[in-house]
Amino acid sequence: MPKFRSTRAQAEHAVSRKIALGKGRHDHRNDGRIHSVGTARGYAQALKGFAEYLQSNRLGDLGTATDKEASQYLADRSVLVGQKTLDLDRQALQMHLGVRLEVVKSERETVLSTRSYTTAQVERIAAAQSERNSLATRIAHDAGLRAHELLTLRPAGERPPSTHRQWSEARFTGRVGVTYTVEGKGGLVREVMLSQDLANRLEEKRLAEPRQVSDRGIHYTQHYNLGGGRAWSQSFSASSRRELGFSNGAHGLRHSYVQERMGVLQGNGMGYDQARGTVAQEVGHFAKDTTNAYLR
């Protein structure tokens, strides 16, 4: 791709190479071409957004973009946009890169409808769960994990974080604990930190042999006898309703983590903007604006 300064020019050039107007799309389905003006317009807008993301994160341009960068972009976008927009973005990226990308589910509705829990509320919920789900709840709160990420926990020494992203050294400022890794959306492997007590309790649940588990149609290799995925999420919500009379959903624990970490980082003298970016990385995003969705 020629070098363009403008992200709009990059996007328009990428789309122009795929346009095949005048050919019925029903007769040429799945040929990797664009057969309507409306689709061309939508893809150009989607690719412009991706180009801006690459530029702002110093990752190059559309001509050098990789599928890993596209997957992470979709993961970041999942907090900010609805499913329809997210699917359009994915389709545009697939066309441009010539690869098939994993379908990413939008978190926007979940994020907007959930609110944080206090530490005391989390403890009440955890105390009313089974042992393996109780530990999972405390770990999810302590590390800001998604439900499926609980199934992917590994000691940091056994699996390094993804190398295609630049990680901030400010992560986990103000914390002392043990580092693990989890696999998040888009296949991004990131470091998370657990308190020493929770790490000790987790290691007591270490499986003699890893086991294969399935959650929402996706297969994971689990190394600990720990709750996670949909089953844990349902247990959390049921326990929350029993103990508190309401449920904000397990996703509310990510709200709690972000809000608590923002307080700690700013209390350590970090500016608001840097704190947002730091926490975004801690919960598996790279666009600091995504942090805003958790600060409601």
Structure description:
The chain has 296 residues and is mainly alpha-helical. It folds into 2 domains: 7-97, no CATH class; 114-294, Intergrase catalytic core (hpI Integrase, Chain A), CATH 1.10.443.10. Helices cover 46% and strands 10% of the residues. It has 11 helices and 5 strands; from the N terminus they run αααααααβββαββααα. It has helices spanning 7-16, 37-56, 67-77, 83-97, 108-113, 119-127, 131-143, 196-203, 229-244, 252-267, 272-282, and strands spanning 154-155, 178-183, 189-194, 206-215, 218-224. It has a 3-stranded antiparallel β-sheet with strand order 1-2-3. A hairpin with a 5-residue loop joins strand 2 (178-183) and strand 3 (189-194). Helix 2 (37-56) crosses helix 4 and helix 10 (252-267) packs across helix 11 (272-282). The protein is globular and about 60 Å long. The two termini are 41 Å apart. Mean pLDDT is 89; it is low at 23-29.
Give a quick set of tags describing it.
296 residues; mainly alpha; hpI Integrase, Chain A; 2 domains; 3-stranded antiparallel β-sheet; globular
Strand portion, in percent? Answer: 5-15%
Side by side, the strands of the main sheet go 1-2-3
Helical content stands at 40-55%
Q: Biggest sheet, in brief?
A: 3 strands, antiparallel
Q: Kindly provide the radius of gyration, computed on alpha-carbon positions and rounded to a whole number of angstroms.
A: 21 Å
Topology-level CATH name of the largest domain = hpI Integrase, Chain A
What CATH architecture of the largest domain do you see? Orthogonal Bundle
Top-tier CATH class of the largest domain: Mainly Alpha
Number of domains: 2
Mean pLDDT over the residues? 89
Class computed from helices, strands and strand pairing = mainly alpha
Question: At the fourth CATH level, what is the homologous superfamily of the largest domain?
Answer: Intergrase catalytic core
In N-to-C order, the SSE pattern is HHHHHHHEEEHEEHHH
Number of helices: 11
